[in-house]
Amino acid sequence: MSYREQPAPGRLLLDDTVLLTAVIEASQNLQSHTEYIIKVQRGVSSDNSWQVIRRYSDFDVLNSSLMVCGISLPLPPKKLIGNMDREFIAERQRGLQTYLDSITQHPLLSTSLVVKKFLDPNNYSANYTEIALQQVSMFFRSDLKWEVLEPLRDIGWRIRKKYFLIKNKEQPKESYVLSWVDLGPDKFLSDKDLQSAMKLLTGLSTPYLCPLLFSSTSESSALLIRPFSESGSLRDHICKVKPREMYLKKYCNPKKSQGLELQHIKLYGRQILEGLKMLHDSGLFFGHLHTSNIIVDDDLCRLLDVENGVLGVPSVLRPAFTQFRKINTTESIDVFCFGHILYEMAYGRPPEGVPVDQYPSVPYTAVVSVLQSILSTEACKSGMPTVSELIKTPLFSDVQLQCSEKLQIKLPSRLKEALKTAKESLEKRLQEEQRLLHQHRRLTRAQSHHCSEEERKKRKIMARKKSRQTACENEEDVSVRNNNNSGSGASSPPTCPSSPTPPSTTDRYPSLYNSSVSY
Questions:
Q1: What distance in Å separates the CA atoms of residue 312 and residue 168, rounded to the nearest whole number?
Q2: Of the residues 4, 46, 91, 150, which has the maximum number of CB atoms within 10 A of its CB?
Q3: What is the rounded CA–CA span in Å between residue 448 and residue 296?
């Protein structure tokens, strides 16, 4: 079923997970204020860069929008008198650069719409809430049994995905969540195959997948309905927050987050792995595993948004796994993401960075052993274990599951082949991005080495040696030419008793008579 027949004109498949970097290159004083010229770059290519001009008041508005996160950000203070002084402007520019670095390097703030719009207004000027409302209204006009209760504003990190709490008029006591999402850059299925895949996922009943009750796709977006869980996601449980709150407020600086008990780590981990194994065995690809995409209800974990893979939207952890060339398949991506989940369940927070070789003390050595097999430097360089291998580890092998039968999803052969081709295309895009990143790193290291103080000293020493060597060679050439000139003239230089006797002809050209001598 398609609720909209035509794609959005001039649609741009932009990967919102590609990091933006920002450098204040200069400032310029106008009559009553100062403007800061910021160079913004997407990803590692300097060709993909542009300039934006911002005043201090723009930074202040941005900071006000981010205050909900509960983090004290280093915005320089306001100054009413003397704010046009040259030294003050230079100092403020340094402070604003520090502020930009703090938000562009933060994993949640950097992906927020207000930050993207501040740095890249051309690509993020659209009102996505209004677009979503238009599509949802069109859907409700075609199916009158649904009714919107309230919008769920910014409960998720994804910019091009909006949520609404709805109810079915025939079942007024049940709550559902409707989500509208733009298709992403990794959508490689044809429209027909995408509709077939969504039809398969809709109504699929398995213990470890959150049910999808309704789905509809167009050429550019999808509309989805599933039950709303008041108990929230696994991350909500860990952070002890309410599911309906804004994600920046919930997750940026949680005050009560706490790791889980070992029994829950084992149970939840095994259930998640069983869900992944079922997807992998069937030929479906996921790549979007994180604690906010896992619903927990009565000690049962269910994977959420399993349709994200076929919809082509980018993974929240894409900036992390693109750093490692061995993580280049959808299966290895899922295992890498599982390592982040396991870390968060154990310590109550995501890892600050990967690889992780030092682990805070916990009483669960079996957990640390599995974490090392996924998140350590060695694991990231040599490759991930498989899901089946993780299930067999001592941490998960003895977990008793309520559902003991083998779970499987049967796919039509045509769809299975289409999914295989789409999966290969997705992995190819990832591998190309990893290749470019690796190339950029090598170039950066070479430039850094070339510009290092020690290297500059070495080059100076080599230059001096070469200069001395050249000078010596020049002196020898002059000496040889002088000697040649003295032997070819009609007269000889004056001699005195103390002067040595001029060398004979044979001594002057020894190579002609003595083969053991060489120049």
A1: 29
A2: 4
A3: 48
Identify the H or E element spanning 55: strand 49-55
Interior/surface letters 325-354, b for 16+ CB within 10 angstroms, e for the rest: bebbbbbbbbbbbbbbbbbbbbbbebbeeb
Exposure of 286 in the CB half-sphere (CA atoms within 13 A): 30
Size of the chain in residues: 519
Both structure tokens of 295: 């619903």
3-state secondary structure of 110: helix
CA dihedral in degrees (57, 62, 67, 70; nearest 10)? -130
From edge to edge, which strands make up the β-sheet containing 34-42? 20-29, 34-42, 49-55
Q: Hey, how many other C-beta atoms are within 10 angstroms of the C-beta on 113?
A: 17
Residue with tokens 């997705």: 426
Neighbours of 418 (CB within 10 A): 22
Structural contact between residues 16 and 186, judged by C-beta atoms closer than 8 angstroms: no
Within 10 angstroms of residue 142's Cβ, the number of other Cβ atoms is 10
- For residue 165, which amino acid is it? L
Rounded average pLDDT per 10-residue block, the chain, 519 residues:
39 81 93 92 91 96 95 89 81 96 95 96 91 88 89 93 94 92 94 95 90 92 94 95 94 93 96 95 94 94 96 94 94 97 95 91 86 96 96 95 80 95 96 92 77 68 73 61 49 37 34 29
Give the predicted TM-score (pTM) of the model: 0.82
Two tokens, residue 374: 């996924």
From residue 6, give the alpha-carbon distance in Å to each of 128, 140, 220, 224.
Answer: 18, 18, 8, 19
Residue 209 pairs in a beta bridge with 303
